[in-house]
Amino acid sequence: QVQLVESGGGLVQPGGSLRLSCAASGSIFRIAALGWYRQAPGKERELVATITVAGNTNYADSVKGRFTISRDNAKNTVYLQMNSLKPEETAVYYCNLNSMLNYWGKGTLVTVSS
Questions:
Q1: Using only C-alpha atoms, what is the Rg of the chain?
Q2: 100 in the Ramachandran plot: left (φ > 0), alpha (ψ -120 to 50) or beta?
Q3: Is a pLDDT exceeding 90 seen at residue 27?
Q4: Phi and psi for 83 in degrees, rounded to 5?
Q5: How deeply is 85 buried, as exposed, middle or buried, from its count of CB atoms within 10 A (0-12, 13-18, 19+)?
Q6: 20 to 30 A Cα–Cα from 57, which one of 50, 68, 72, 88?
Q7: pLDDT tens-digit readout, 58-108
Q8: CB 49 within 8 Å of CB 60
Q9: What is the Cα–Cα distance from 62 to 85, expressed in whole angstroms?
Q10: Dihedral of alpha carbons 91, 41, 94, 35, sign
């Protein structure tokens, strides 16, 4: 059984930064691809960034150069550093673990507003 718990969300001004964390239980973390997704009000969930077991990363075009995904296998944790945040990036951010099955956290709310 895998459980994912996100943290680090909150209110930030436009242009500000936040770092999200996602702590995972279970032993499959090291052999799983990880990702961050987000869902804004009234919109579908969308990919933000992913990172493979080997550490290869992939980003949505809209966040390239501003967001950085990373993983710490010793801590079973994946991070999302978000810089230069925009109001339209207000959303619930979800952590995903993919290892034959898909697992999701409950999400953490990020609000970008002045």
A1: 13
A2: left
A3: no
A4: -120, 160
A5: buried
A6: 88
A7: 999 999 999 999 999 999 999 999 999 999 999 999 999 998 889 999 999
A8: yes
A9: 11
A10: negative
The beta strand positions in the chain, using DSSP E, are 4-7, 10-12, 18-24, 33-39, 46-51, 57-59, 67-72, 77-82, 91-99, 101-104, 108-112
Q: How far apart are CA 93 and CA 29, in angstroms?
A: 19
State the pLDDT at residue 97.
Answer: 96
Percentage with pLDDT > 90 across the chain = 90
Strand partners, 107: none
Instruction: Report pLDDT for 30.
Output: 83
pLDDT digits (tens, 9 = 90+) for 28-67: 888 899 999 999 999 999 999 999 999 999 999 999 999 9
Strand order in the sheet with 67-72: 4-7, 18-24, 77-82, 67-72
Question: 54: which 2 tokens?
Answer: 């080997």
